[in-house]
Design brief:
127 residues; mainly alpha
Length: 127
């Protein structure tokens, strides 16, 4: 294995970590998340929260396993674009906005260059 493959795996795992933590936080503080979403004027907050949990968890799994990785990364970029615009466009949210942009940058790298050989997608490619 090449160093690049281990770095790609480490990058995917680190990207997945934030989405897993976010999904877990929404699950364990569902009511608080609903209040936060409603305060930002989102309709059907419970449904949107459940969808966010599912998208974050499934997207993280695609990154961890390296299975349909590019599609998972595309979905997470779209999710981040919307949530960044809705929740982090205020001046006091500058660091959160920049963090999300940096995560999107990492996901765009996954989309552009793939998950690497240490992934289910990479194993299929090697056959």
């Amino acid at each position: 294995m090449r160093t690049e493959d281990f770095l790609a795996l480490a990058g995917r795992l680190l990207l997945a970590l934030i989405f897993l933590a976010s999904a877990f936080g929404k699950i364990t503080n569902f009511d608080g998340t609903l209040k936060f979403m409603e305060a930002h004027g989102l309709p059907m907050a419970a449904l949107l929260c459940a969808c966010a949990i599912a998208l974050e968890a499934l997207g993280a799994v695609t990154l961890i396993l390296g299975c349909v990785t590019r599609w998972g990364a595309v979905a997470l970029v779209g999710f981040l674009a919307v949530t960044t615009w809705v929740f982090h466009s205020a001046p006091d949210q500058r660091i959160a906005l920049l963090k999300n942009l940096a995560i999107m940058g990492g996901l765009l790298q996954v989309i552009a260059f793939g998950p690497g050989e240490l992934s289910l997608d990479g194993r299929e490619k090697a056959r």
